[in-house]
TrEMBL record:
Cleavable signal peptide: none
InterPro entries: HD/PDEase_dom, HD_GYP_dom, HDIG_dom
CDD domains in alphabetical order: HDc
GO molecular function list: phosphoric diester hydrolase activity
Domain (HD-GYP): residue spans on this chain: 166-361
Superkingdom field: Bacteria
Protein name: HD domain-containing protein
Pfam family, one: HD_5
Length: 380
């Protein structure tokens, strides 16, 4: 399911702030002539960026609104065009946004829509784990918003969130954390929260001191922050990525470096994790092709958590692997990963193997698909 189905006039594209939607949530933009109720069913919300001075468009909105009452709807108008605003209000039942409104406003609106949809972490796990998941998800939204608006990152909230994640993983175990965060509608949120949970558990398994475990956990939450600058249509593309799309995704560690370096007071180890988490010990990684001692132990740990999370994440549009297969894929990566650390990661990876077998998820693959694995490893 996609987050937003964006309906625009034929031969048009989203205008003004509406064009920022694909950076905030997964969005499919379609011309009005391609609209169908089936497409609408597959979206969490409907977004209309139509010329409401056209009578047919207003009639179209009325018919959609009466036929599909349960979907949240956002209608973009030109606030200076009174006629458009009046038409949008007259249709009723929608949130109205101006095309000249700020990205901040758009972000807040989208966030509110998802909150109202009740996509929350209320079932399963203890209340403290649910609170930690909610806190981490809200933090991720605030961070995304801050990056898009070029504002300071909420550093205190980030530090607090890392503490809550560590406490949740220590208290209820990694499995409970993974179960909850996998419910988040956004792939990027879910991935980052999974990686931070694994990072917390891995840090504890190695008996690192509390401060280092928190840094590693926060590194997990922030490592892909550079992806904020890449359209979700590319990040979440179900089919094969072309060379240009792949090149764009592979820019995310450098975007991350740029974003975090521009901030005051971000721990150097978090910046290093963000910049280097796709580097491989044999020099085959990116962006700089670092090798061996140029890659710090914390980065090596995070890279293991990152790839393991990417391989095991349950997403409807991609294959995912059982923990056993995922761990064997990591072993097969040979000199790319730190073998000693990988061995120490084993108990973290299999901590909840029993739970996984008990659930016997029928969608996780027991064998790997080389092309899919290569994509997951190089874009995670
Ligand atoms: Fe990444
Ligand atoms: Fe990642």
């Amino acid at each position: 399911m996609i987050d937003a189905l964006v309906i625009v006039d034929d031969n048009s594209s989203p205008r003004g702030v509406a064009a920022a939607l694909p950076y905030i949530c997964s969005a499919l933009v379609i011309p009005i002539s391609a609209f169908s109720p089936e497409l609408a069913q597959d979206a969490r919300m409907l977004v209309f960026d139509l010329n409401l001075g056209v009578r047919d468009n207003v009639l179209f909105l009325r018919s959609v609104f009466s036929g599909l009452p349960d979907k949240p709807k956002i209608v973009f108008t030109s606030r200076s065009d009174r006629h458009e605003v009046v038409q949008a209000c007259a249709v009723g039942g929608a949130t109205i946004l101006g095309r000249a409104d700020s990205k901040n406003m758009l972000n807040l609106t989208v966030r509110q829509v998802f909150r109202n949809l009740g996509e929350d972490f209320t079932e399963g796990g203890s209340e403290s784990t649910a609170t930690a998941a909610r806190q981490a998800a809200n933090l991720y939204t605030d961070i995304t918003q801050a990056v898009l608006n070029e504002e300071p990152l909420p550093r205190t909230a980030a530090a607090n969130s890392a503490v809550s994640i560590v406490d949740a993983v220590r208290g209820d175990g990694i499995d409970s954390w993974l179960g909850l965060v996998q419910r988040h509608h956004s792939h990027t949120y879910c991935h980052s929260m999974m990686v931070s949970g694994y990072a917390a558990a891995f840090g504890d398994a190695l008996d690192l001191d509390d401060e280092t475990v928190r840094i590693l956990t926060l590194g997990g939450l922030l490592h892909d922050i550079g992806k904020v600058r890449i359209p979700l249509a590319i990040l979440d593309k179900p089919g094969k990525l072309d060379d240009a799309e792949m090149a764009l995704i592979r820019k995310h560690p450098e975007h991350g470096l740029e974003i975090l370096s521009a901030q005051k007071g971000i721990d150097a180890r978090i910046i290093e994790i963000t910049h280097n988490h796709h580097e491989m010990l044999d020099g085959s990684g990116y962006p700089r092709g670092l090798r061996d001692d140029e890659i710090s132990p914390l980065v090596r740990m995070l890279t293991i958590c990152d790839i393991f999370a990417a391989l095991t994440e349950e997403r409807p549009y991609k294959e995912h692997y059982s923990r056993r297969v995922a761990y064997s894929i990591l072993l097969d990566m040979g000199g790319k990963l730190d073998k000693a650390l990988l061995k120490l990661f084993r108990p973290v990876a299999f901590q909840s193997e029993f739970g996984e077998l008990k659930r016997s998820n029928p969608r996780s693959r027991a064998t790997s698909n080389a092309e899919q694995v290569a994509r997951l490893i190089s874009t995670s």
